[in-house]
Amino acid sequence: MPAYLIADITVHDGDRFKDYVTAVPAYIEKHRGKYLVRGGNVEVKEGLWQPKRVVVIEFPTKENALAFLEDPGYQPVAAIRQESATTNLVIVEGS
Fold first, then answer.
1. Helix (H) or strand (E) holding 22
2. Which of 6, 38, 72, 88 lies in the 20 to 30 Å Cα band around 55?
3. Nearest to 68, CA basis, from 22, 34, 17, 21
4. Residue 77 belongs to domain with CATH number
5. Residue (of 37, 25, 36) closest to 68 by Cα position
6. Which helix (H) or strand (E) covers residue 10, if one does?
7. C-alpha angle 9/14/17, rounded to 5°?
8. Element holding 88 (H helix, E strand)
9. Banded pLDDT at 4 (limits 50, 70, 90)
10. Can you tell me the distance from the alpha carbon of 12 to that of 95, in angstroms, rounded to the nearest whole number?
């Protein structure tokens, strides 16, 4: 069953965040993920959620998504994101 990693990212340090954007695709690809949404305009139609930068990545399974997040090589890359942005992140299984 596919799983979707959904992130709402508020970037605080754009220059540093560029390092993350450059490095992360290799780890997503390593774990068989693919971008479905990577930024773009957000139009709130209902509710109070005000996302800034939305990213949706599809993985073949939840295990692939977790392996991506837990990959030891990805940890220094994740630290760049954590230092340069505030992130809300969920994994949702779907069809």
1. helix 14-30
2. 72
3. 34
4. 3.30.70.100
5. 25
6. strand 3-11
7. 65
8. strand 85-93
9. very high
10. 34
Instruction: Confirm if 33 and 64 have CB atoms less than 8 A apart.
Output: yes
Residue matched to tokens 């773009």: 40
Tokens linked to 58: 């599809």
Token digits of residue 53:
């930068």
Q: How far apart are the first and last CA of the chain?
A: 6
Number of domains in the chain: 1
Give 27-81 pLDDT, tens digit per residue. Answer: 999 999 999 999 889 999 999 999 999 999 999 999 999 999 999 999 999 999 9
Assign 95 a pLDDT band (cuts: 50, 70, 90).
confident
The token duo for 78 is 């994740």
Domain that holds residue 28: 3-93
Cβ-proximal residues to 3 (8 Å cutoff; 6+ apart), any chain? 58, 59, 60, 61, 62, 64, 65, 91, 92, 93, 94
